[in-house]
C-alpha cells in the first residue's frame, strides 16, 4: 500500500516527467522562424493550386474578381492560368515572362522591368524558400506560429516602393494560402490559394 505522502511524491514525479517530455515540443514551437519557414518551403519540388483573386481599384465601383490555377516547379517556374473572367496565361521561367491572351503572346525579360520582376519574385522566392533573394528585394518581417504565419514584405528599391507599399504572404507550414498586395494609391489585390490535394 502507498502512503498519502508516497502518492503525492509519485504524482509530482510524473508531472515533472510529463513536463520534460513536453519540453522539446514547446521548444520546437518557439523555434519557428523565417529561416525554418524558408527551409520547409525549399523542400517543395512542385505544387498545383486553384486561386481566386479580388482586385480593389479606386476608380471602379466594384472589385474585379479573377480565378484560375497556379503551378510552381523548382527552381524558377511559375504559371498562372486565369480562366475567369477571361482566359490569360502568364508563364515565368527564369528571367523570362510570357503573357498569352486571345491568341497573342508577349515576352518580357524581368531584368529589364525591375518593378514587374520584383513583384514576381515576392511569390517565386517565397515558394522556392529563397531567403537570400527575398531579403535582397524586401525588408522581411515574419509573425505567427507554424500553423498561421505571415510574411510582411516592404520593397527595398525606391522605384518599386513608389508603387507597392507592402506585400503580405500568409500560410500554414510549407503552404502559401494568401497573397495581399497593397499599392501606394490605395488599390490592393488579395489572392486566396487552395492547393490541390
Give an overview of the whole structure.
The protein is an alpha+beta fold and 197 residues long. It is 31% helix and 44% strand. The chain has helices at residues 4-30, 34-41, 114-128, 131-137, 158-161; strands at residues 46-56, 64-73, 77-84, 88-93, 96-101, 104-109, 138-143, 149-155, 164-172, 175-183, 188-195. A hairpin with a 2-residue loop joins β9 (164-172) and β10 (175-183). α3 runs antiparallel to α4. The chain starts with a helix and ends with a strand. Mean pLDDT is 88; it is low at 14-21 and 23-29.
Jot down its keywords.
single chain, 197 residues, alpha+beta, eleven-stranded antiparallel beta sheet
Shape: globular
Write down the Rg: 22 Å
Q: Helicity, in percent? A: 25-40%
The run of helices and strands is HHEEEEEEHHEEHEEE
Largest sheet, spatial ordering of strands: 6-5-4-3-2-1-11-10-9-8-7
- Mean pLDDT figure: 88
Biggest β-sheet description:
11 strands, antiparallel
Straight-line N-to-C gap? 56 Å
Total strand count, please? Answer: 11
- Structural class by SSE content: alpha+beta
Number of helices in the DSSP assignment: 5
> What percentage of the residues does DSSP assign to strands (E)?
35-45%
Uncertain segments are 14-21, 23-29
